[in-house]
Input
Amino acid sequence: MSKYQSQIGRSLPRVDAADKVAGRTRYLTDIYLDRMVYAYPIYSTISFGTIVAIDPAPAAAVPGFITTLLALDIPGENQVGVIIDDQPLLAAETVRFKGDVIGVAVAETESAAHRAAQLVQVQYVEEQPYLSIDVSKTAQSKYIHSSNIACTHRVDRGDISQGFAAADRIIEADLVTPYQEHYYLEPQGCIVVPETDGRYTVYGSIQCIYYVQKAVARALGIPFSKVTVIQTPIGGAFGGKEDVPSELCARSALAARVVGRPVKMVYRRHDDAQLTSKRHPFQMHYKIGVTNDGRLLVAEINLVENAGAYATLSSVVSYRAAMQAMGPYVIPNIKVLSTAYYTNLPPAGAFRGFGSPQATFGHERVMDHIADQLGIDPVELRLKNVLRPGDMTLTGHQLKASVGIEATIKQAADAADWVNRRRKNTSNGRYRFGIGIAASHYGNCLGAAGWAMDGAAAKIQIRRDGSVTLAYGLSEMGQGANTVITQMAAEVLGIAPERIIVLDPSTDLVPDSGPGVASRNVVMTGNAIRNAASQIVPVLKSAAAEMLETDPDRIELRNDSAEDTDSGNAVNFNDLANHLFISNRPMDSLGWWHVPALKYDPETGVGEAYFTYSYSTHIALVKVDSLTGLVQVEKIWAAHDIGRAINPAGLEGQVEGGVAQGIGWALTEHFQTKNGSVITPNLSTYLVPTTADVSQVQTILVEDPEPLGPWGAKGIGEPAVIPTAAAIANAVSQAVGAPMDSLPMTPEIVLNALD
Output
């Protein structure tokens, strides 16, 4: 009898690595089609105002010019709002930020389309723009939309009046976080092909293929079934290719409909920065009541978010931030108000973490304020209040299993030698050292607010030659999803991973599986694969039993074969697949999994906001140059409760990438606008971390299995970035001896704190 070799827990090499390293991977800009033309957006040059007249005539002078398209050319609905219907596909009357798209220029070449778009003349009546949250909040008339409030969410649990009355100390703090630009290396882009039968095929650098299908069908006024969306390999996304591709694809589809030829649209870097969504800036006020020994009693929290000109995904960000506003701690009395305000700035939308990094910066800076004022070690304070099995989250969700936050704090602190490093004198000499900790919890999948969309599909198809194709509804965007999916499919079928080909996501292959966001991929697709396997594995066992003349109950699929566990006789998977075919048995199965029902009250924000949580603790060691104000992150210890590690090397890669992104948000990435124009659109002005800025990262994987996760696994994509900036800010605060309550901590800001 052969020994069973599990695929789960193996650091399987990336299945896409060889092609990417060798340059064989074809990204969208590598794709050229016969008779293809190019489109480029015509967009507003003012922040707020009314369109009076549009004159496209000057564009016709450009050699290769074909046409311009405006709102009146849309045959369907002029609307591309993701959650709230507040965003026209093409602005017809009002423009709300510099970058609001008014029309599309189409030409034979990319440069001609770009030039033609610039020549279209638009006349406006300008209004005074709202270029900050504070100004937007005070508006009494001439709102950006029907009002300047995009959305609100709240949590109201316990009695905060009694909580504050019982508190020994009340500690307050104001915290601020900024925009962050995704700066994916591959700009936004798509190709739309009009087919001869009235269908449209869309190729794009897209996270959410079903969003795009809906947007194109809506704009063209056709059924979803006439739109096929195929994801091409993505050169970076981080949430930035969730909402925005719907805009590009629908506008390109409009052009393809009119000209009857394939249309390609790819943003140039400057325009990508001006037109697309960012991480939401937050303003936060925390008021916390505690006992003298550091036990949390009560919190009153006000979160205010800058939504930009359109809501896009602000509702999701506002919801998630509210549900996680006080972190992974026990607190019996809490009131949270989370409000997103419109401004006449580029929209804020999806960005890795969806409001959790901002909320974590808030609650983890406040935890350090409490520790400082009470004279308690920050690790000790967190352990005193941390969630454990049987405890309730801030929304009143009683946790029963897979609550690994305490282990992440302890293991990170032990690895970092926290006690000894914390005691070191950091105040002498030019270079000052500090160490800081931040802990967080992250609700897996879409949560109660998005429960209706929180299902996903996977399709397993066995070929006669023993090869297997797998289709799924979410997305590979560089994070290694296809590798983990390969492992999970190989595990359930008992076959070698090399047999499996994961197909590019397409709306024609599996049912609508919701958006490729919220760290859903492993949990949703893994469970869908298991469901598909539950249908096809009995068929395989029946066929194998027939071949081996035994009972199906004695068949095990493992080690690339089907084995009779009594006799040890086996049939290899190639022969089994062929027998499946010649015996006329089913050779494919469609699996589906949906998050279980959640008990949640949207009026109070009380209940099961998410079905499970990933937990993380990051500890940062920093060196501050007191002469220049430059902060160098020396090392990050990153402990993550991921339930079960499917691919440990892939998890480490996710954590290292998340830490790098968190370092940039904390220290170097200073996104700036002036009068509504982005003035940091490229790498000479928007400083993403280089290899010289990224620290050594020690990843610590805590495995506390989630009963509903596939093989116990939970999400890691977003938790990897969430605590980093807060840990760095806490470390810098210790090093400089002053609270660092806003980001980014540029040298100028650090020098001001030192002075």
Summary: The mean pLDDT is 97.
